[in-house]
Design brief:
With 90 residues, the protein is of the alpha+beta class. 41% of the residues lie in helices and 24% in strands. It has three helices and four strands; from the N terminus they run H-E-H-E-E-E-H. Strands 1-2-3-4 form a four-stranded mixed sheet, covered by helices on one side. Strand 1, helix 2 and strand 2 form a beta-alpha-beta unit. Helix 1 runs parallel beside helix 2. It is elongated and about 65 Å long.
């Protein structure tokens, strides 16, 4: 495994190293790496910390998986909490 600063001729770097899997954290590098992956039958994993998503480029297509985070309560759950809070305060 090697780590390199991205967004500087990513495609050229990948062609010289020839990896089977590339992990990137920016959209620009994901675009360049996916072009490389098409030519070399490799895979690209794009990790976005900001949007909490993982995308896998394999066999010419992106597949997205959203990382589950804290679930937002439903309306009925919020309503029950409000009623409980009112009852507890009264």
């Amino acid at each position: 495994m090697h780590s390199f600063k991205g967004e500087r001729d990513t495609a050229g770097l990948l062609r010289s190293l020839g990896p089977e899997l590339v992990i990137v954290d920016s959209s620009a590098d994901a675009r360049e790496a996916s072009a490389y992956a098409l030519d070399r039958d490799a895979a690209v994993l794009h990790i976005s910390v900001r949007s909490r998503t993982l995308r896998l480029f394999q066999s010419g297509a992106w597949k997205q998986s959203v990382r589950p985070g804290p679930r937002r309560p439903s309306r009925s759950e919020r309503g029950r909490r409000t009623l409980f809070a009112r009852g507890a305060a009264g």
